[in-house]
Structures are given as structure tokens and as C-alpha cells.
Amino acid sequence: MSYSSPEELSKIAKDLLRELKSKSSLSVKERMAIPQQDMPCQEPSVRNKNMTEVATGYTEEQAIVEANRCIQCKNKPCVSGCPVGIDIPEFIKHIVEQDYQSAVDVIKVTSLLPAICGRVCPQEMQCMKECTVGKGLKNLDLSVAIGRLERFVADWERENGAVKVPDVKPETGKKVGVVGSGPAGLVVSADVRREGHDVTLFEAFHKLGGVVRYGIPEFRLSNEIVDQEIDTLTKMGVKIEKNFVVGRTRKLMDLMEKDGFDALFIASGAGLPLFLGIPGEELVGVFSANEYLTRANLMRAYDCENSDTPIFRSTNVAVLGAGNVAMDAARMAIRLGAEKVSVVYRRTENEMPARREEVLHAKEEGIEFCFLQNAVRIVGDGEQMVKAMECVRFELGEPDASGRRRPVPVEGSEFLMDVDTVIVAIGNGSNPLITKSTPELKLNERGNILTDETGKTSIDRVYAGGDIVLGAATVILAMGEGRKAAASINKVLSDQK
Q1: Which of 146, 366, 375, 465 could form a disulfide with 184 if both were Cys (CB 3.0 to 4.6 A apart)?
Q2: What is the pTM (predicted TM-score) of this model?
Q3: Last residue of a domain, which of 159, 183, 202?
Q4: Is the confidence at residue 62, as pLDDT, over 70?
């Protein structure tokens, strides 16, 4: 796919909109013939040197054209594909009518984070995957661009000063503690507060947002947008306790037994990075993607003129892994001045779990992809610094339990790759701090908290959701878990009353 400038895309949309307005009505066939509108972006050779958001968002004309592609099917399969159940056809219909306030109001019935979700949720694996337009044409790339439309109306609301604070019912006198301010914690805080309960949100870091703050770079999701989305919670009356490490500052059960909380929700995330367990991972220049991105995102190490946060300055970087976190780490390394960045993956591009849009953006920005190979040893110099990485080549065999073809090492295929930095992005384990200090919590073999279908843990009135339950998952899946648990908490507290 060749790069098209925002000006070119705007002109295409204006011409299409003029054509659409010349017709009194559109048939289903005519709607399905409208091409999907590409997302305007910064030019690749410019954006890979700055931290400004890569995607600049739909113009109004693009949004209206894209919304006209929705055929408003009665069975609404896209809604069933949305973990929080947004009425997608309804909000899109309002965009066609140019009633953007009503569009965002529909979204906010079930999601208070549309500007975040519109940017980072993998819609192509959820709502877009179920879209009748794409299925009818047997091409996911032609589904209605639901996330881009969600972002458009969320940005319109914010830029026009029209952000509404949800109504809060009269105070109930019940206290709920939420541990962790990632997507699941934010959703629970909002949904429980709406019912009139006193909510306190505990965050270990000095900034709120969890993974959307420390794990997603500014060039994909600006911290300003995260701040503005979270600001709604404080206006609703949610209390915030920062630099509060549950399990250290205060034990979980003390919050209930000593501090009088009537219910708790644990959303502490999956922040324990996994490594390959190969020789050389202790060398200077080897990082988990978590640490690398946290330094750059949360602690603003990229802004070296205004921040004292240290970060390793690299020339030749290898990123191990092929998910969204690996793409973020690779693209961050380019922006931090690396001359060469390579993504090393033991399968092929077809098996990559990263979003296709992120892979495309990485390629456009100069990231190299080394498929069917993986590291077996990291080589140091005499001063314990990384100087190379020994890799082995693979070929694909039969499918494994994930449904992807199993990578099989090729005997005698070892070779050295010159690198000075290795970033390991192969996933995370569950955060063990709370679970180790709360032996009453039942866990699975991976250390994730076990919950029932309502989100309840093995402890009465203690619920959990997000990555601490699911393992490393998506923002919207964590939000879906949060909504389920919030409904359960509200019911329990209502029954008590």
C-alpha cells in the first residue's frame, strides 16, 4: 500500500461525499460499493523522528462517507463482536445525520473511553470481524471502519468542549475500592460510581492509566487524551490515591477489614515481563519491552531536554516478538535515535499477532522484519555489554494448540546478528504483589486470579478483571471484564441495602 497524504485523502472524501449527496437515497449495493476511507497519517520519514500521533484522524467528510457504508443490518452482528456491547449501527447512523453529540452519547452508554478505544482497540478482530459489509465482500479490509468513526466523534466531543459528565445517583453510603487504574479499573470506577457508591481508585504509579499510560507510546495515544478521559472520573466524584501500592502500602484485606470498604475490585494487570531464558539476558543492553516503554512513555525519557529519566541509547536494536508491544518497542527505538531496528520472529508475517495497521506503520517507518528466526544466545563484549545475538533459522511444521503452524528449528542454521540492544517483547505474567500478600486468593497455574462468571474471586465481595485474570489481553476485553464485575458489585451492594 502506497502512502497517501492527508490532503489527497481529504480531496477523495470530498468528491465522494458530493456524489453521495447528489442521490436521494442509497441502496445496500451502493453503500457496499463505497470504498473504505483510509486513515490520514503523518508522512513516514517525518513521523519516525517525532512523538506526535501518527494517525491524524478522519476529516468530517471522511467520517460521513465512511458512516454511509454501514447498511444498518437488523441483527447487528458488530454489536455482538464488541466486548462492551456498544450499539454500533446506532452511533454510526447519527454520524450520517451529522449529529455527532448523539453519536458519542450512544457510545458512552457502555464505554466512557471512546477516544482511547477508537485508537488502540483491535477492531479488526472484534466488531469489524463481524461486520456484514466485510463478510459480504469476503474481505476484512472492506468492513466499516468502526474504530476510526468512534475516534472521530470522541475527538469532536473533546475539541468542541462538549464532554458530558455522567449522572451519579444519590449517595448510598457504600464504599468500593478499585486497585489499578488501567482500562478495567477505570470502567469499574465509573460504573460503580454512577450508582452512587463512594469509589476510591488506588494507583501504584504517580500517573493514572495503567497500560494505556506506560505501555502505549505517545505516537499511538497521547497522554493528553488519557488525562482528559480520566478527568471525567474525578468530575464524577471518584477519589484518587496515587503512589499507593496495594500489597505494600496496605494489604488488600486491610482495606476491607480496617478501612471499611464494602467491596473491592482488583485490576493490577499483567506487569511481570517474561524472558526467553537464554544465555546473555543479564547483559547491559537487554531490556524487557515493559521497562523500555515505561521509561519512554510514563517517565518521558524520549524528552531528553526536559526529563532526567535515563534510557539506553542504541545504534542497532533487535526486538524479539511480534505482537503490538513489539511493534511499539521497535517504533519507539527508531524515534529514540537507533540507526537500525529489526523485529525478530520465529514464524512468518501471516502468524503475527500484531494489528496489521501497526505492522504496516512499522514497515513504513523503516523497521526491518526478520521472519523464521529467533535468538538462542546474546553475546557480550569484555565489559558485559551486548555486541551480538546468536540466532537460529526456523521452518514451519504442523499447527500447534494456538492453530498456528509450529516453528521447527533448522539444524546447523545458527548465525550471528550484530546488535547493541535487545528488547524482549514476548509477553507478561500476572503481577504477583497482591496475590502473594493475599493467600486467600485462588490462582491458576499461570498465577492469574480465578474468578467466576460474575468476576467474583474466591474471597467474598472481592472481584477481579483485566490482565490479572485474562493474562495479557486487549484494552476493550479488559473493559468488558470490568463492566461485568461492576454490574455484579452494584447488585451485591444493592441487595445488602
Answers
A1: 465
A2: 0.93
A3: 159
A4: yes
